[in-house]
Amino acid sequence: MKTIYKKLLMLLLLLPFSILAQNTVGGTVLDKTSGQPIPGVNVNVQGSANGVSTDFDGKYQLSNVKRGDKIVFSYIGYTNTVVDYVAQNSLNVSLQEDANQLQEVVIQVGYGTVKKKDATGSVSQIAEKDFNKGINITPESLISGRIAGVNVTGGGAPGAKADIRIRGGSSLYASNEPLIVLDGLPLSNAVPSGATSILSTIDPNDIASFTVLKDASAAAIYGSRAANGVIVITTKKGTKGKVKVSFSSQVAVNTVENTVDVLSADQFRALVNEKGSTAQKALLGNANTNWQDEIFSTSVTTNNNISVSGALLDKLPVRLSVGNVDNSGILKNTSFERTTTSISLNPVLFDNHLKIDVSGNLSFGRNRFQDEGAVIGSAIGFDPTQPVFQANSRFGGYYEWLEPNGNVPLLPARNPVARLNQDQRRATSTRKWGNVSVDYKFHFFEDLRVVAEAGIDRFDSNGFTEVSTQSILGFRPRTFTEANYVNLGNYSSYTDALQNKNLNAYFNYIKNFGKLSVDATAGYNYQLFEKERSQTGEIRQPNPNQDVITDPDINLQSYFGRLNLGFDSRYLLTVNYRRDGTSRFSQQNRWGNFAGAALAWNVAEESFLKDNSTISTFKLRVGYGTTGQQDISAQYDYLRRVTLGTINSQYIFGNTVISTARPEGYNENIKWEELAEINLGIDYGFFNNRVTGSLNYFDKESKDLLADIAVPDGANIRNQGFFNVGAVRTKGVEFNIESDIVKNDNLTWNVAFNTTFIDQKISNLGIAVPGFQGYLAGDNIAGGSGNKIQVNSVGFTPNSFLVYEQLYDSNKRPIQGAYADRNQDGKIDAGDRYRYRKPAPDYTFGLFSTLNYKKFDLTMNWRASLGNYIFDNVSSNLGYLDAGLRRQTDLSNVSTDYFNTGFTFEDNGTQRYLSNYFIKDASFIKLDNVTVGYTFDKSLLRVATLRFTAAVQNVLILTKYNGLDPERFNGIDNNVYPRARTFLLGVNLNL
């Protein structure tokens, strides 16, 4: 009994000390819905400075905790969780997403940031978790189909450039590319020879988010370069805490999904025997060659990336990333390889008063190209009854069409397999770019910050083209029947160097006066673009055109300012101004003034909606702004210049060679192209923002268009040049909606949908004479010589098709050579061509679905396009009998469209090429990607989480168009590098 009393007395004496004891608690923080760990969660003792953050695996260790403390778990986008500490050794927490807090997400708006709920312009942001899945070789594919009003059209070649248009673009002949701002550095749209695009050097694994400034009120802060919208790319940064390692690896198999429909060997043989002459029948071979199968094959792509992030010495956040992608094309002997290294340092010093962001990037590229159009065109048109190889052929053993005496004829197609193997086109590139940002908040005046940014982007490339001495394309000074016949092949090389220097300096003042918030920015921007190129010419031929070309520097200088005012988070005003100067224009026209203003009303913050259980977000926006355009190919078109002639325009006096000098055309009145745009918008959210979205209407007009047009005889000393002519008006509607359709502990299903309607018309083209139909536009088409099928005309969409109206018989079959006399002058000529359809769609759609069940996930992304048309140039060029039986000395294959038309010969010049019969409906629905994933937590590997994925890309196309692919940016289907169908496996490892 005495012993029991002693023990109770000891317990009573120790009780106060046990209450005051300091303990350590640890655990894991998970997403309540997905069960995935959440890195970066703040774990703090309430009312104390004691706190830590979770690591990459959601783990934390919090010391100096005593019984009775309240531990607060907080993270942006999630509801705070508070737990009473009662001496637990382990404390695991699951956080629930808070849709209301998602409005606090900060988005980039140019020279600053703004909370999403306070944004007044039409701005869209997409973060890493919402990127398109699968294997993404270049960054553009991450957002394809994901943002309303943003259209991304990629190509099939390895590393191919994707054409990006925001709200349909704004110009006719100047650039329609959006401004890309990468970590504060505005990029140039220029690309050196041997590279594919300005974004192809960036590893998509390093990108954290895209922010798109779509309307002029939001983009006006970028002034002269923002007429086509702005895309702000933010890369991943270092974070405080323990070191985190992430590794991803993907292996993909690229397969040939579709090829052009031409006659098989048996079909072609039957056609020639039925329709051909005796001489043509004698030319038929005994082979059965599918030439497209010979040039296309299955290929493999690998994509690997490893990154390390953390805080050096617990003070300096840093991230280092290394990546490599090796993308072999389905067209043989084509490939794209990129190796990237990036580093980011983000120290915060002097008690959070000085923030420094340093980013450095190095990218090496190796490209292997082909003369794609010529190779694919040869494969489509080459005689399928001929073999790939021929015994005793002097052209490397490949079969080629030859004259009876062995000489090379001028007109027949060349063996496409020989072209692939005997024509080497290789290039390497090195790109170095980086940006340093210093952000200082004054100690004596903490409402004021000064920010200075300096960046440089250096892009170098070199490459060569070498044609084998056994190739039929090699340089042959003499014909085969002449003495001393020799094939020298061909060789040329080049180097390119582009450099972009940028400097920003601005002040930012932020202050709250009661319910009134003020955010003011004012600054200066300087940017210089330099370019130099050297080329050898064909050094195996006489008088190669060797040259060093140094383009004039382009200098842009600007003064800019922005004022954001907010009252009680309900009434918001943004005003932008920018004064831009460019060296492309004369002193009288050098400077342009661009401004924007936007108002927003957060209706949901009003008292009558504040506690509404149905309407969570309701914001009305209206904005107006002006932006400019000066990005044309002519650097100093306003100057009167004299240039030296080439080697083809020299005079010889005795033994002296005299170069000629010639005056160049000019336009001293060339000036800014300007765009004005109004935007009306609604942002909405329902049921605690479980359903969110926006609706925008925009109306913009570009005037004083910078157009490269023909000049009337005698009006200038050149035939064509840049002038400010005309106007284009674009109206449209954007709508997007996103919803968590199902959301519980085991299953979530999120669906995001967007659609855009665009109506774009040319409203003015300057002074016109009677009968003027507009300016021919677009690329030359195959067939005839120098034919164009597109036109820019007042009242019509840019690049509308200009065609003859085909007449049909009672069976709805086109009548050869029969067209409508639309002007009723009794003859069929160019005056009967009319504007018919357009390549641009009326509507575009995007659908993104994410389904998570426990540790499984399934994502799909769909795209659709409605109202876009395409010119079937393959059928127009090869869909008639004479395309195959034109000559008595060689044969060519014919498109299967010949069976639909029965066309046999050319009619009345080139009118058959320009028939509206070949304008086809190219509307489509595409399933771009399906990805299935499974995540192993640390129950499998104690030190790491592991995720496996399997995916298919370019899964399905639904369309009426029976050509190769309905999705062509320029609206012309001819000798196109096809998009592959890709099957891939991937693994992600996080330590």
Oligomer: single chain
Largest sheet: 22 strands, antiparallel, barrel
Low-confidence residue ranges: 4-20
Report the average pLDDT across residues: 89
Supply the number of helical segments.
9
Q: What is the straight-line distance between the termini?
A: 57 Å
Helix and strand content put the structural class at mainly beta
Strand percentage lies at: over 45%
Which value, in Å, is the CA radius of gyration? 33 Å
| Helicity, as a percent range | under 10%
What does this structure look like?
The protein is mostly beta strands. It is built from nine helices and 54 strands. The protein has a 22-stranded antiparallel barrel. The chain has a five-stranded mixed β-sheet with strand order 10-15-16-13-14. Helix 6 (372-381) runs antiparallel to helix 7. 42% of the residues are buried.
